[in-house]
Amino acid sequence: MNDRPEEPRSPFSPPPKPHMSEPDWSPTTRAIVSGRPARQPDSPLSEPVVFASTYHSGGPIAYGRDGNTTWSALEEVIGALEGGAAVSFASGMAAVAAVFEQVSVGGVIVLPRDGYYGTRAFLGATVAGRWIVRLVDIWDTAATVAACQGAELLWIESPTNPKLDVADIPALCEAAHALGVRVAVDNTYMTPLGQRPLDLGADLVVHSVSKLLAGHADVVMGAAVAAHGSELCFGLRRQRSMAGAIPGPMEAFLALRGIRTLPLRFRQAQANAQELARRLAAHPSVERVRYPGLPADPWHDRARAQMDGFGTMIAFEVHGGPNAAEAAACSTRLIVHATSLGGIESSMERRAKWPGEDSPPSLLRLSVGCEDIEDLWADLDHALAIAAKVTAGLGTAVHLRTSPLDQKTPGRE
User: Fold this and answer.
1) Enclosing domain of residue 196
2) Model-level pTM?
3) Looking at the annotation, which residues are catalytic?
């Protein structure tokens, strides 16, 4: 018998779990069964909310900034879906910042020119000069690889927000690794049910949990995923604790509950998006539809090769310019005019109204939800009819709204 005491655990290590062999369950099943408490008589079916800042000594958590069992349950599910170990954060931007904090001061980060504006704004303004940023067209594999020379991190969005460009993730990962460059992929748009970047070669995956994963427009949270036991996992947990970017236990509980229905929501919303994109492409008031599920889309074949389906987001440009597009966005009765995405309800907005957002002026970003497809189409057709009247001078032009916040405020979600 070995009486030697165990090595002390770091507070930045995940709480230990008993080793159990698991069946080869599908992602749909894992979304429902992972992160559950042990099956014991009278034990709860779902992990309860734990409100605690202080813990009795002797365990792996010690203090509320270092761990919470409600977080752990959520992280288990996200990790199981992505095929790695997840670390939850107070917001998607907190997760993004934690990944960038792994890059040394003065290091080079390669970033998509089209992508979530908050990510670009964080690198360009919030921490100006700390890192060197090279902007690329992420769909251009050769140009992106060339920009990776001497870089530390390649950041990929695919499909991009909002133009829905698709990167060749396997090719970029292979080329970046050959140059000694880490690769992180923002997988918010596709979720692990539609795309698994770690399986495609990425080192890190980032999510705005607020969006499709939680799915009910009532949570602000983020997550980052890396390989089990990796230095990156340790670094992310340490950064979360040191920066205090921790999620609330109630938010973690709500996100965990939302993920239980992710397979159903994602399947329905994706089917709705495919059909709406097809109908929009034939509508006389629509100039262009960007959706990789359309055979005519330039990224259709690339998306089909690395994605399971084509996602729930559509971007389309309206004939008549920004006034017509804004009129359409403001005229929906079912689709919510809002800046976020990924909810069970559909939402839409004109992205160029936000300061700093470099999008076509008449581009509308449509986050497709789970409503009845005919109700959604009737609402879009109604909104586009109003846009056509504005274009013809028969309707009232809509004031082109910009952010109600200071003009220096980064664009919304």
Assistant:
1) 27-260
2) 0.91
3) 65, 116, 186, 211
